[in-house]
Structure formats: structure tokens, C-alpha cells
Design goal:
CATH architecture of the domain at 253-342 and 428-433 and 457-514 in chain A: 3-Layer(aba) Sandwich
Distance between the termini of chain B: 43 Å
Helix content of chain B: over 70%
Number of helices of chain B: 13
Largest sheet of chain A: 6 strands, mixed
Number of strands of chain B: 4
Number of strands of chain A: 24
Radius of gyration of chain B: 22 Å
CATH topology of chain B: ABC transporter involved in vitamin B12 uptake, BtuC
CATH superfamily of the domain at 253-342 and 428-433 and 457-514 in chain A: P-loop containing nucleotide triphosphate hydrolases
Structural class of chain B: mainly alpha
Shape of chain B: globular
Strand content of chain A: 25-35%
Structural class of chain A: alpha/beta
CATH class of chain B: Mainly Alpha
Largest interface: A-B, 42 and 34 residues
Distance between the termini of chain A: 53 Å
Oligomer: heterodimer
Strand order of the largest sheet of chain B: 1-4
Chain lengths: 514, 330
């Protein structure tokens, strides 16, 4: 693949690009995540950026809006070379990004958020009326009915997204980047968003749209950029490429290369959850996990999958819940209880909930199972030997076994996290987004490890928002939506379409939600 | 399309740069102490006289013992402002109990045991307010600082409380192998504290809670219990310090006993390299920090610097220590 991959666009061949991204390279502590990416962006187009998780989409766009700094390469804006050294300089150029996780202040109201950092004032005082009026006008333009004085904390996710868009418009945006805007929206809300994109386009705004939903991209975008493992794979007119091509270019390899063959599981039930309820979060969750099974949990963000896992681990107060581990009813009130039941849970928030970032590898691995290494005092030698065993087993790459976790890459951190829980010798392993932000090789290693463990009789629950992962890994998938289990899929039924139908509420297995 | 997925390993960092950074963080307080000792030895001929050195060590042992407990609290992410007032209250109660128990070693032993127990109990009170009442430690101990000082004045009628026991002064004023007993106590407690912090599960949990309490609770650590216990340890240390202090003087004056000890203890902990945000720190560093503060006081006296300026110097040293810490973090 040559790094020179500038494709002329048929319709825009004579137009001057608004942005020229030239040979951008980005490295994180020596690991290259973007390899000489070159793209032209033309004014008034909707450019789709496709790629798997970890392909470098978000990294690239975070460089454009100044959140990350590029390692090398250059960026031109409207024909002039620019250095985007922070969000402020991106904003000055008219580049805005709507992040996946919104940057809104919950305790302020709509107009205060929209004008945050660019407040209008009259003399010494804020000109609230002017800001309110402008907000109303913007919201009207967006065809959104919202009270400018409503507190952000009272808004729905879709409404918050509208506020983010209004916030971008108030500062005369020229390039608007949206990072997977539809993942948090219902289908109806997605339609509204798409209509909005058309209106923004009509206003001359250039849109860059990140997604991994092929259908949406096909419907919305003019041109498509596909990234894989940090490389630019192709730039295509949307009419020149079909969904199969997109998928092939995104994945670039057969799925069976990365996922181990599925193993059939025993009939023995190791975990039976019944009648799990948390008011406002979970409603009547019932399921079984078999010995040696990999059970997938699918669903959109906020469907209640993490809540279910945390409730099982004693991390959340439940209104009702009956848990049987290997046929014996157990009361799990704390993580310690769950550990005693041989259960393990790797949170999706590796750094915030999983690992002590300024402890070294040894201390992180032994944190839960520390009692094993205590004979009056901690036996440092024993502890280090065991940690070394895991470092070898998982091929954890670090300068030393005494390196603090903060100096490890995401993939290696995840391996340490896995080792930490494996050291408690669990029989039931719950993995919440086990490969988020991890390179493809580490993913593969983790998948094969999970598979190997199930052969020894461990049962695994995988919660994932990556459909590929569930399809490739799980022998059975439960789909959750709005705090309920709405579908159960097995065998060939485990595919993108079926999962999304259930997750988006187009299909519902009533026997599951009864 | 022939993109191959390459395994990209980060280039190995120069081991030397790593070592240099590591060494700086750990040994900076020790280096500072050595520089200070050399400077002091040159600046004043009286500094290295054994009598002066043992005096410095004795003077620092009272706040030093408190600083050991404070190290646990700060590493776990808290702070205890009430220790100064607590020293006064425990000291007053200790002497009153001693007088009530009467004469002889039995009375002394009982009074000491009671003092340590009262200290631990007051610490537990702080801990309960903070962990059960969910009050920030700064605010909770600010309140108990005021309460304990006022109770001290109340139980003693604001008058000096004098011990009638002939043996009591032996504890704080005595020597063993020509080293003052409070220094021995400080040394032994420092070793115990070090072992507790570095080589037990409890110590590991204290660090984990201070680094990230959420991670700790997701790792089956009883976060509130650990946090609570650090305040109990701080209280018990205050109890021991109060015994040493009151027996040295054979009396306690409720108004100014332990005044500003919380600041000296916190300063010593910070100078010793413990992060005020919690998560990392060593007992070794705290001991060094305590001695640095003691030597600075001693030198200012020996050099005839106005006592009014001593606070300025102490403040500057704290600032330098904290600035150096932040530099290290970056």
C-alpha cells in the first residue's frame, strides 16, 4: 500500500479541499497507531470514516480537533498550513467535534452550556437574554424543541447531542466531526439527526462522520475513508462501494483467523440468575450460564449489561435477585462474596475501576488474591514469582515486572487485569468490553486465552458492543434493551442483523421479557 | 491490498533515564538531609556535639511519632488536623488518670495503656465521622480539632495539670544506652510502621485505597474499613506521643500543648515525599522529613536567627519539598 493515496473525487475534482491531511503519523509511547495517513476533505461534503475499533478513526479525528498532537505529517486548512496544537486552535479554525461522551456540564442549563467559554456579556455582566435568544434561534434551526433554561441533567441523550451540535454551530463551525453519533440514539432520533446533517450540509458545513455501521454510512455519506490497524486502506465514492466491500476492507482478514473455533459446552448449569431487578435500571433478568460456555451479552450503551454484571458481583444494590452458583443459592453482597463464589469481573473501565495505575505489575496482579501470599508478612518472592508466571503466560510486554501500570500499553494493561482476576482462580469469568481500545493482536491473544480457559471448565460471560466479537466468540448471545433481556440467539442466528434487530427494539422475544 | 499487521513493540526506554528518575524520587529527601547535615556541621561547631544531636532527635520524636500515623492517613487519601488538640487532651487525661491511679510503676503502666487506648478511640471517632458520616477528612478533623482543644481546656479548667508520680518523668526524660527513651520509641514505632505499610496486606490496601478507591472496592478491598483504620492508627500514635510529651515535662498545659503539631506532622510527611493526594509514600521518607525539620529548627537556634523567622524558613522548606515533588511527577 503506497502512502500516497490521494484519490481525486469525480464531483469535487476541481474544488479546492478545505482540509488536506498529509502523511499524518501518530505514536503513543512508541507504538504507532497511525501510519502516514493522507486524506483531502472537500467543503460541503459528508465524509464517512469507517474502521473497526482500534483502526485509528478516533485518533485521527482527535488530531484534527487538537485533542491529540500528531507525531509527524502536516495539515492544511483552506490552503494554508496550520498547526493544530490544542482544542482552542481547532475552534479558531472552525473545527468542532461532537465526542462520543458529551462534554456538557450537568449542573448548568442549555444556553449556559452552549455559550460555555464564549459567553456574551454587556459591560460587566452576562447578557443572558441575548444568549437565550440566540439559543432559541439555533434550536429552531435544528428543529429541536428544547427549553434554553432546562438543566442538562434533565435531558435525554439525544437532546444532549442536539445541545452539543448547537454548541458547535454557535462558534461558526466549518468542519463538524461526529464520533459515532448514532450509537446512543434510537432509530427515530437517528432519522432526526440525518435530516439535520442534510441541513448543515446545505449551510456549507463540512461533516466528518465516524461510524462502524455500514448501512448508515452508505445512506448518509458522499465519500468513504476506510482505516484498518492505523493504515489508510481506501477512499471511495459512496456509490462505488457496496457493503460487502466495506466490510472486507475494514476487516481485511477472515474472521476465523482471529477467533478460535467454538467449543461446545456441557449441560451443567454453573450460574443461574433469576428475578434480578433494580428499579429504573434492570427489569426481571433471568438467565443461565453453563459450564465451559461463552455467553455473550449484546445491546446498545445503557441497555443494562454492565449493571447486570455489577449487580452479580455485589457492586450494586438490588431490589431483588436470586443467584445460584452450581445449584447452591448464594447471597452476594460485596465483591469479596463474589470472589468467594469463584466469580470474577473485569470492568469495562480498566483504568478507573480495574487497575491501580501507579502500582507495578506484581502488586496489581496480587491485589485481590493477596491473602495467598501472606504468611504473617507478604512473601515478596512468592508474589513476584507468581506475577512472572502470568507475565510469561500472557506475554505481557513491559520494561520490567516492577513497571507501573501507567507505563504499559492498553493491551498489556488488559492482560495484567486478566492476570489479576485469574489469580483468584475463578470458575465464572465476566468480561465487560474485554478488548476495548486494544490492538488486533492482543485481541486475538485474549480470545484464544478465553477459549482455552473454557476447555478447562471455566464459564465466561462476554459483554461487548463489538458485534464481531460476540459473533466470533459466543456460543449463545443474550440481547438486552432498556434493562431487559429481549432476545436469545444461538448458532447461525448469532449475526449482525439479528442482534441489531433485538438491540434496537425491532424484534422482541416475549418469552424472555415475561 | 497487502497490509500486514505488525507487532509493534515500544522501543526500550533507556534504563539509565529510568533509574535516574526513580532514584531522585526516592532519595531526594535523604540527599536533602545529608546536604543539611553537612551545611550545619560547617555552619556551627556545636551542631555535631552528641548532646546536641540527641536533643534534636528527642525534640523531633514527639511530632515524629504523630507523623508516622499521619503517613498512613495521607497515603490513604485523607488528612488529620486534629492530632495537635488530641495530644493535649490525651496528655491531660493521661496525667489525671496517673494521679488517680496513685504511685508506682503499676499506675504508670495503666496510665500509658489508657492514653494509647483513648488516642485510638478518638482516632476511631474521627474515622467514624469520615467513613460513616461521609464527611471530608479535612472538614471532620477541623471540627474535632476545635472540639478536642476545647474539651482539654474544660477538663483541666485551663490550668496546668501536674503529675504526682515520681516515676513518670523517667519515661520521657530517661535514657537507654545514652539515647533518650522517646527516640527509641520513635525508632521502634517507625520500624513497625514501615513493616505494616510495606509488608502486610493492610499496608498494601492503604496504598491501593489512596491511589484509587474505586479500583480498590472493585478489587474486594474493604475501603471504608481500611480508611477508618488509618485514623485509628493516627490516634494511637497521638496517644503514645502524648505520654512521651507529658512525662518529659511531668505536666501538661492545656492551652499550648501540641499546638501546631498537626502542621509539623503534615509538613514532615510531605517533605518525606508522600503525595498529599494519597497513594504513595514511605515511612522512611517521613522519618527523614521529621529529622530535616528538627535540624532546621536547631540550626536556626544555634545560628541565633530570630525565633520569629523560624516559621518562615519552615514554610519555605515545605514549599520547596512540594515543588520538587511536582517536578518529579511531570
Amino acid at each position: 500500500m503506497s502512502s500516497e493515496h490521494r484519490l481525486a473525487n469525480k464531483n469535487l475534482a476541481n474544488a479546492t479541499p478545505i482540509m488536506q491531511i498529509d502523511n499524518i503519523v501518530k505514536e503513543f509511547s512508541g507504538v504507532r497507531v497511525l501510519h502516514k495517513v493522507t486524506i483531502d476533505i472537500f467543503p460541503g461534503e459528508v465524509l464517512g470514516v469507517l474502521g473497526e475499533n482500534g483502526a485509528g478513526k478516533s485518533t485521527l479525528l482527535k488530531i484534527l480537533c487538537g485533542i491529540y498532537q500528531k507525531t509527524s505529517g502536516s495539515i492544511s486548512f483552506a490552503g494554508n498550513k496550520v498547526e493544530i496544537d490544542g482544542p482552542a486552535s481547532a475552534k479558531a479554525l472552525g473545527i468542532s467535534m461532537i465526542p462520543q461522551e458529551f462534554n456538557l456540564i450537568n449542573t448548568l442549563n442549555v444556553f449556559e452550556n452552549i455559550f460555555l467559554g464564549s459567553e456574551r456579556s454587556q459591560g460587566l455582566f452576562l447578557d443572558k437574554n441575548a444568549m437565550r435568544a440566540k439559543t432559541l434561534q439555533l434550536l429552531e434551526e435544528l428543529q429541536t424543541k428544547l427549553d434554553p433554561d432546562a438543566l442538562i441533567s434533565t435531558l435525554s441523550v439525544a437532546q444532549k447531542q442536539m445541545v452539543e451540535i448547537a454548541k458547535a454551530l454557535v462558534s461558526d463551525v466549518r468542519v463538524l466531526i461526529m464520533d459515532e453519533p448514532t450509537t446512543v440514539l434510537t432509530e427515530h432520533e437517528v432519522k432526526i439527526l440525518f435530516a439535520l446533517v442534510e441541513r448543515l450540509k446545505a449551510r456549507g458545513v463540512t461533516l466528518v462522520f465516524i461510524s462502524h455501521k455500514l448501512k448508515e454510512v452508505k445512506q448518509l455519506c458522499d465519500r468513504l475513508v476506510i482505516l484498518r490497524d492505523g493504515y489508510l486502506i481506501s477512499v471511495d465514492e459512496v456509490n462505488d462501494i457496496d457493503e460487502q466491500d466495506m466490510a472486507r476492507k475494514m476487516v481485511g482478514r477472515e474472521l476465523n483467523q482471529i477467533y478460535p473455533p467454538k467449543v461446545s459446552c456441557a449441560a451443567e448449569t454453573v450460574l443461574k440468575v433469576s428475578n434480578l431487578n433494580i428499579k429504573g435500571q434492570l427489569q426481571d433478568i433471568n438467565f443461565k450460564l453453563h459450564k465451559g460456555e461463552i455467553l455473550g451479552f449484546a445491546g446498545l450503551i445503557g441497555a443494562g449489561r454492565t449493571e447486570t454484571a455489577e449487580a452479580l458481583m455485589g457492586l450494586r444494590e438490588v431490589d431483588s435477585c436470586t443467584v445460584q452458583v452450581k445449584g447452591r443459592e448464594v447471597a452476594i453482597k460485596s465483591v469479596a462474596d463474589a470472589v468467594a463464589c469463584k466469580m470474577a469481573y473485569l470492568s469495562e473501565d480498566r483504568q478507573g475501576k480495574g487497575l491501580v495505575m501507579n502500582f507495578d505489575i506484581v502488586k496489581n496482579i496480587s491485589l485481590i488474591s493477596l491473602a495467598k501470599y501472606v504468611k504473617r508478612l507478604i512473601q515478596g518472592k512468592l508474589e513476584t514469582e507468581q506475577a512472572q508466571h502470568y507475565v510469561d503466560l500472557f506475554d505481557i510486554k513491559a520494561a520490567s515486572i516492577n513497571s507501573e501500570l501507567i507505563n504499559l500499553s492498553g493491551g498489556n494493561q488488559q492482560k495484567v487485569y486478566l492476570a489479576k482476576w485469574m489469580d483468584t482462580e475463578p470458575e465464572i469469568l465476566i468480561l465487560d468490553e474485554p478488548t476495548r481500545g486494544i490492538d488486533v493482536n492482543t485481541k486475538k491473544e485474549i480470545y484464544h486465552f478465553i477459549n482455552a480457559m473454557t476447555k478447562t471448565g471455566m464459564s465466561v460471560i462476554v459483554i461487548s458492543s463489538e458485534l464481531d466479537e460476540l459473533i466470533g466468540l459466543a456460543s449463545r448471545v443474550l440481547v438486552m434493551r432498556e434493562g431487559k433481556i429481549v432476545g436469545e440467539l444461538q448458532g447461525d442466528d448469532i449475526n449482525d442483523q439479528e442482534i441489531m434487530y433485538y438491540a434496537a427494539g425491532l424484534k422482541q422475544d416475549l418469552s424472555k421479557s415475561a | 491490498m497487502s497490509i500486514q499487521t505488525k507487532i509493534i513493540t515500544p522501543p526500550p526506554q533507556s534504563p539509565f533515564s529510568k533509574l535516574a528518575r526513580f532514584a531522585w524520587g526516592t532519595y531526594a529527601p535523604l540527599i536533602a538531609l545529608l546536604v543539611l547535615v553537612i551545611f550545619s556541621a560547617i555552619a556551627s561547631e556545636h551542631f555535631l556535639i552528641p548532646r546536641n544531636l540527641t536533643n534534636v532527635l528527642r525534640q523531633v520524636s514527639y511530632t515524629g511519632i504523630i507523623a508516622l500515623g499521619m503517613t498512613f492517613v495521607i497515603i490513604a487519601g485523607g488528612i488529620d488536623l486534629s492530632v495537635g488538640s488530641m495530644v493535649a487532651l490525651v496528655g491531660v487525661l493521661c496525667v489525671m488518670l496517673l494521679n488517680w491511679f496513685g504511685d508506682g510503676w503499676y499506675a504508670v503502666a495503666m496510665a500509658i495503656a489508657a492514653a494509647v487506648a483513648i488516642g485510638a478511640l478518638l482516632g476511631a471517632l474521627n474515622g467514624l465521622i469520615i467513613t460513616r458520616g461521609k464527611v471530608a477528612s479535612f472538614i471532620a478533623t477541623l471540627a474535632t480539632m476545635s472540639i478536642l482543644r476545647s474539651l482539654t481546656l474544660y477538663v483541666s479548667d485551663a490550668g496546668e495539670v501536674v503529675s504526682h508520680n515520681q516515676l513518670f518523668p523517667e519515661i520521657g526524660g530517661g535514657y537507654f544506652l545514652s539515647i533518650p527513651i522517646p527516640v527509641w520509641v520513635f525508632g521502634v514505632l517507625a520500624i513497625i510502621s514501615h513493616i505494616l505499610l510495606k509488608h502486610t496486606a493492610f499496608g498494601r490496601h492503604v496504598c491501593a485505597v489512596g491511589c484509587n478507591a474505586t479500583v480498590a472496592s472493585y478489587s474486594a478491598i474493604k475501603v471504608r474499613w481500611v480508611y477508618f483504620m488509618t485514623f485509628v492508627i493516627a490516634g494511637a500514635m497521638v496517644g503514645i506521643s502524648a505520654v512521651m510529651l507529658s512525662s518529659r515535662l511531668n505536666s501538661v498545659s492545656p492551652g499550648d500543648a501540641g499546638l501546631f503539631y498537626e502542621l509539623d506532622a503534615i509538613a514532615a510527611v510531605v517533605i518525606g515525599g508522600t503525595a498529599l493526594a494519597g497513594g504513595r509514600g514511605t515511612i522512611f521518607g517521613t522519618v527523614i522529613g521529621v529529622i530535616i525539620l528538627g535540624i532546621i529548627n536547631n540550626m536556626l537556634n544555634l545560628l541565633g536567627v530570630s525565633p520569629y523567622l523560624q516559621g518562615t524558613v519552615k514554610g519555605l522548606v515545605i514549599l520547596v519539598a512540594v515543588l520538587a515533588q511536582f517536578k518529579g511527577d511531570r
